[in-house]
Design a protein that fits this description.
The structure holds two protein chains of two kinds. By secondary structure, chain A is an all-beta fold. In chain A, about 0% of the residues lie in helices and about 60% in strands. The chains are: A mainly beta, B alpha/beta. The interface between A and B is medium-sized, with 24 and 26 residues.
Chain lengths: ~100, ~200
């Protein structure tokens, strides 16, 4: 269960820091730091660097993604930026432009 | 919580240093340092901390807010709410156990002008003066003044005004029983006033 949800229609301009799961259905601009999982849902927009645990993207991310676990780019995801993680999956139908760094 | 699909939740372990804008409801159990502007309902939970102004259709506070609250519909401060800042909404409810330090103003945008004038009058003069002014005005205005009255003692200025008023009242009632209060106006002998008038006329 996600503790923090950024709902559709909400825009956050600044820094979000969380010790728990974050689900983004709205928009975040700035910086997103979470100790636990980050999920960018379909329709969610993140124009920020993401530093988190496991990251799942079905929406749009513009910025670097750094994870100490895995990054899943799901069908419909659009990611522009570098991804650094121990494991990464890019699903069929995901758009991705950037470097992948799996050397952790 | 009821409509999860549209609502936003800032969890207890989350700190947001940002401006939060948009549509839909917002539930804050964590911390927000940045202005919150929302077309739906903003709920500050018991553990929630907001260090900025909140503007929304409806605001419910159970936690702590340091900043001004402005609502299009209503502001509800429930038990445990701690607000340092001004409240402005057509309807404001403060439950027992809710703390406020700031200016409280009820009333809609349509009749904002006379009410804001009354508010400034109450701020400028004592509460008794504003009450009499309110009495002179029409009945709805008096209702507003009554509405305004209950939360007013929470603000420090109104507390002082109320205390001063009650103190003066006690002094006046006690004058007949205990003894004469210290004279406020210097007592003039009979004919002195006429003499003064005469002097001024001569001059």
């Amino acid at each position: 269960m996600a503790s923090t949800v950024i709902g559709a229609g909400i825009t956050i301009e600044g820094e979000v820091t969380s010790d728990e799961d974050v689900v983004v259905s709205g928009t975040i601009r700035g910086k997103l730091v979470a100790k636990d999982a980050v999920t960018v849902e379909h329709g969610g927009v993140v124009e920020a660097d993401i530093s988190a645990g496991p990251v799942a993207v079905a929406g749009s991310v513009t910025g670097n993604i750094s994870s100490n676990d895995r990054v899943d780019l799901q069908n419909g995801a659009k990611v522009v930026g570098n991804v650094k993680a121990t494991r990464i999956t890019i699903a069929d139908g995901a758009q991705f432009k950037g470097n992948v760094d799996m050397d952790v | 919580m009821a409509d999860r699909h549209a609502s936003t939740v800032i969890g207890s372990g989350t700190i947001v240093r940002a401006r939060v804008t948009g549509t839909g409801d917002l539930e804050i159990a964590g911390r927000i340092e940045g202005d919150v502007s929302c077309s739906g309902e903003v709920l500050v939970d018991a553990g929630g901390l907001v260090g900025a102004n909140i503007s929304a259709r409806r605001i419910v506070v159970r936690g702590a807010v340091k900043g001004d609250l402005t609502a299009e519909d209503a502001i509800v401060l429930e038990a445990g709410a701690r607000v340092v800042g001004d409240l402005k909404a057509p309807r404001i409810a403060i439950a027992p156990g809710g703390l406020v330090r700031g200016h409280v103003q009820t009333g809609g945008a349509g009749a904002a002008r006379p009410r804001s004038a009354a508010a400034s009058a109450s701020r400028a003069s004592t509460s008794s003066a504003s009450a009499s002014k309110a009495a002179e005005r029409s009945a709805p205005a008096r209702v507003e003044a009554k509405k305004q009255a209950p939360p007013a003692p929470r603000s420090s200025s109104s507390v002082n005004g109320g205390a001063g008023k009650s103190g003066a009242h006690r002094g006046a009632s006690g004058a007949s029983r205990v003894g004469p209060p210290p004279p406020v106006v210097p007592v003039l002998k009979k004919g002195t006033k006429a003499a003064l008038h005469g002097q001024s006329k001569k001059r």
